[in-house]
Specification:
Blueprint lengths: L11 E9 L3 E8 L5 E8 L7 H14 L9 E6 L3 E6 L5 E2 H7 L5 H20 L2 E2 L8 E3 L8 E3 L6 E2 L12 E2 L6 H4 L7 H16 L11 H10 L6 H4 L4 H8 L12 H5 L2 H4 L19 H11 L1 H7 L3 E2 L13 H9 L19 E2 L5
Antiparallel strand pairs: 1-2, 2-3, 3-5, 4-5, 4-13, 6-8, 7-10, 8-9, 11-12
Helix pairs in contact: 3-5, 5-8, 6-13
Pfam family, one: Pkinase
Protein name: Protein kinase domain-containing protein
Organism: Powellomyces hirtus
Length: about 375
Amino acid sequence: MASAPSLAPCEYKTGRTLGQGSYAVVKEAVKISTGEKFAVKVISKKLMHGREHMILNEIDVLKKLSKGHPNIVTLWDYFETPNNLYLVIDLCTGGELFDRICDKGSFYEGDAADIIRIVLDAVGYLHDHQIVHRDIKPENLLFKTKESLKDLVIADFGLSRIVDEDKFEGLMTTCGTPGYMAPEVIEKKGHGKAVDLWSIGVLTYFLLCGYTPFDYDAATQADEISNILHGRFSFAPEYWGDVSDLAKDFISKLLRVDPHDRMTVHQALAHPWMRMFDNPSMDVDSPATPIIDLLPQVRNRLKLKGIRGFRVAAETVIATNKFKHTSPQSSAADLANGINAFNIQEYRPKSEDHNGDNLMVLPPRR
């Protein structure tokens, strides 16, 4: 039996809490030897018991991707102690996506297009490396600084998968956030890269109006699930009157129930909406080129929907063996009940749980 790694002097000093989730807390940290600042994701082994594969998977994915793309979070180091696992990643001080939007003085359709272009480019890098993220949502889009929207990075790769290109329709686990799940994920029909494009379609819709496409007229989550499975959504004129037809076309070509009918990431990057706001020859005063500030109405609807409550409610769904009672033939209500049964509870650890915890070096995994 191999001996356990020995305790080493603490290499990082942790500071204020940056964020908290179901099984982890993210803290600001300084590397003692260099003074460099990082974020450290502190993961409770107790709360992750039975789901350790998610963290090992996240490490594997980030090791493959780190430093390869400016808009994908970098894993700089990883350690463990008897109680916790630590992932040392980029320090992102610019906040989450919707916090940043709500704090801005203005937000135009062109800003939304810029954000989606960055996300598509990063997801394209993932797909080119045979990785499906499977949890694209606002909470996993962070800004490194407050200076520029271009500082956006995709984070949290716990649900991502490295898959053989020839088996890209073989992923069967139900995972993700309900409002952003593609139909084939909910129905467990097998899924691949196209699920990320569906999530980007939902994200684009949300950016432009402040609510998600499938819960607009849904009284229950079963109604929302039914809307997703049937691809039922609309562009209500009172909320979408100031948004371009090209944006609506872009969204419609991503929110298609059949994954084979959805745009690929490279097709989405080539869509005219992606080029609409960076063409120097375009007449910015043309009615076809929206220059309306969307922030007041988006912010108001985010407040009405309770974005803070939404963030807590939109917990990651992890399918377990107990979820097997649902099948591709299950009703929307059965599927919604199955999803709700496995929402991970919010974890808010005390700050002293992690302070002063000596770090144990975790040997590189072979």
